[in-house]
Amino acid sequence: MDLIIDPVDITGVVPPQAFRFITGADTQIPVGEICRAAEYFLPLASADFNRVRSAADFCEFFLERSKLRYRRFRFDQYFQHRLVLGFVLILMGQPSEGEQKIRQFCQEMDLRF
């Protein structure tokens, strides 16, 4: 999972052009439907991530995403987000909070800090 907002996370609504191509039992690759979905979602995703131009921008963006209430997925659904959060906190001038997140990650993954 990347850090780009899924429009479904914002609205809670799945637009008809989004996932129609995966609902049928057709065995052929629905290229046209996939292209229409990409045409809909790519501009939204690109516009959302365009504000990231530096490491500091990324850290702010990452922290913002860590606090978002996702409708379909969770931010920490992927273990690497919890680890990266620790490093981001350190980069943002919160070393003790960052170290605590990294230690917690290591304990959960049965790793030596």
Q: How would you explain this protein's 3D organization?
A:
This protein is mostly helical. The two termini are 25 Å apart. It is elongated. It is 60% helix and 0% strand. It folds into 2 domains: 1-50, no CATH class; 53-113, no CATH class.
Topology:
Elements: H1 7-11, H2 16-19, H3 31-49, H4 55-67, H5 79-91, H6 95-108
Helix pairs in contact: 4-5, 5-6
**Topology order in helix (H) and strand (E) letters:** HHHHHH
Helix count equals 6
Give the total of beta strands: 0
Low-confidence segments, given as residue ranges, are none
Query: How many domains make up the 3D coordinates?
Result: 2
Terminal Cα separation, in Å? 25 Å
- The overall pLDDT, averaged over residues, is 79
Helix content: 55-70%
- Classify the secondary structure makeup into a structural class: mainly alpha
**Quick one: biggest sheet?**
none
Please compute the radius of gyration using only Cα atoms: 18 Å
Regarding quaternary structure, how should these chains be classified? single chain
Shape: elongated
Strand content: under 5%
List keywords for this structure.
2 domains, 113 residues, mainly alpha
Summarize the structure.
By secondary structure, the chain is mainly α. The protein contains six helices and no strands. The longest helix is centred in the middle third of the chain and has 19 residues, at 31-49.
